[in-house]
Write a structure and sequence with these properties.
417 residues; alpha+beta; Rossmann fold; 2 domains; ten-stranded mixed beta sheet; seven-stranded antiparallel beta sheet; 31% strand; binds S-adenosylmethionine
């Protein structure tokens, strides 16, 4: 090995260890623990082998690296390391370890597949599938060069069976899905696990779901963002303009009158505050699904507000998170979860509303926030059942009807699941 190659390998190891240390610290701040096997794999696999053309420093940033675009849309990337670590952690926890497991990864790039290869060991197997031949060609070449030549790479639309007749202990999806095609459940072993970034109410979470006959039952969830699934299972999000740089995301086949929405923000803003001091580590992503479920059960139309930086800076809107804030439309009145307010010691939760019934709408949203805190900040859980399942066989919860499945969202405090 030349001096240059040796020093690059040393620098790579240094950067990789620093990245893993950062991810472990992030996990701890979220109350998560990275499984030891995942840590070992992440300290071993050289991410730069799957990011040709970018510097070593960039390869070890804790962000996704875009590899394909179609117009303005990102269609492929090497996923962000912290997200990969969280999803591998979900899979490891749900299955009690990955050694000896058969795994199908949906959405290729090579990096995650090689981590999986390390985790399953010699007695397990990894297949990775991508719909885009440019991605599979690149992933296969990178895997080969990095010495992971025992990963099977397939080019196909994973909405359909990938290796017909095969069953997997783990199916891990690395693109954002709107629904779960039957084959993902059918190709799992009896108590196999599906880890999937799944969109419900316009918000995506990585769910670890364990198969139980014809159902899938959630084991854990994490907040995440991914490029969307393409192919036969693709389901586009639609947006309606509220003002310059402010949009509403429509999901679940919603219909909204753009004329109504375009006229809400000129109404004076009303606000309501919960008057609470948020406990540290409160998972507000769980509150957002609680609001979706509860507002949907009332007459309101639940929507997701997105805003560009300039719109927030100009003060037209002050959402809790500009990439996706829970919002509701009731007639001509529009409400949303506001940015947190510093109460002098800790943060408070609030809602802003515009329109003829603004004060009542902001108050209603804040009541739901208080109810969530009073219930001990319950976490969401999912059951996914086939479309033909009658209402009487569903657990009590909020039901979302998708194309292939009925999804029931319930809430549990720790220990009550
Ligand atoms: C975020 S990238 C995958 C990242 C990769 N797992 C890694 O190791 O970093 C998502 C990939 O999903 C692929 N994809 C989207 N829809 C698909 C489908 N229906 N079937 C198979 N692959 C799909 C895209 O082409 C894209 O390359």
């Amino acid at each position: 090995m030349s001096v240059g190659t040796a020093s690059r390998a040393g620098r790579s190891e240094e950067l990789r260890n620093a990245l893993v240390d950062t991810i472990i610290a992030d996990h701890a701040a979220k109350g998560l623990t990275m499984p030891a096997d995942v840590e070992r794999a992440m300290r071993k696999v050289p991410r730069e082998a799957f990011t040709p053309g970018v510097s070593l420093e960039k390869a070890y940033e804790n962000t996704a690296i875009i590899t394909n675009r179609r117009g303005a849309e990102t269609t492929s990337s090497v996923s962000a390391p912290y997200l990969i670590a969280e999803m591998l952690g979900q899979a490891t926890d749900a299955l009690g370890g990955l050694a000896g497991r058969d795994v199908l990864e949906i959405g290729s790039g090579g990096y995650n597949a090689s981590l999986l290869r390390e985790l399953v060991g010699a007695s397990g197997s990894v297949t990775t599938v991508d719909i885009d031949p440019a991605v599979t060609d690149r992933a296969a070449a990178c895997l080969e060069r990095a010495g992971y030549n025992d990963v099977t790479v397939v080019c196909a639309d994973a909405e359909h069976p990938v290796e017909p007749g095969r069953r997997y202990d783990l199916l891990i999806v690395t693109a954002g899905a709107w629904d779960i095609p039957p084959v993902w459940r059918e190709q799992l072993t009896g108590d196999g696990v599906l880890v999937v970034p799944l969109r419900t109410f316009g918000m995506t979470r990585s769910w670890a779901l364990r198969r139980s006959q014809d159902r899938l039952i959630s084991h854990s969830h994490r907040q995440c963002g991914f490029v969307s699934m393409q192919g036969d299972g693709g389901h586009r999000m639609r947006y309606v303009d509220v003002a310059d740089g402010v949009h509403l995301r429509l999901d679940e086949n919603q219909q909204i009158d753009p004329g109504v929405v375009a006229n809400v923000l000129p109404h004076p803003r009303q606000e309501a505050w919960a008057g609470v001091s948020l406990p540290p580590r409160t998972v507000l992503a769980d509150l957002d699904l609680w609001l979706a479920a509860h507002l949907t059960r009332e007459a309101d139309e639940f929507l997701v507000l997105t805003a560009q930086e300039k719109a927030v800076e100009s003060g037209i809107v002050a959402p809790s998170w500009r990439f996706g804030t829970p919002a509701a439309l009731d007639g001509g009145t529009f409400s949303y979860r506001s940015a947190l307010r510093w109460s002098g010691r800790l943060f408070d939760l609030g809602a802003y509303a515009h329109g003829p019934e603004a004060a009542a709408a902001a108050g209603r949203m804040v009541e739901h926030m208080r109810a969530w805190l009073d219930a001990d900040s319950p976490s969401p859980a999912l059951q996914v059942v086939p479309t033909r399942t009658p209402d009487g066989d569903l657990p009590d919860g909020t039901v979302l009807d998708k194309r292939h499945t009925r999804i029931v969202l319930t809430f549990h405090t720790s220990g009550s699941r």
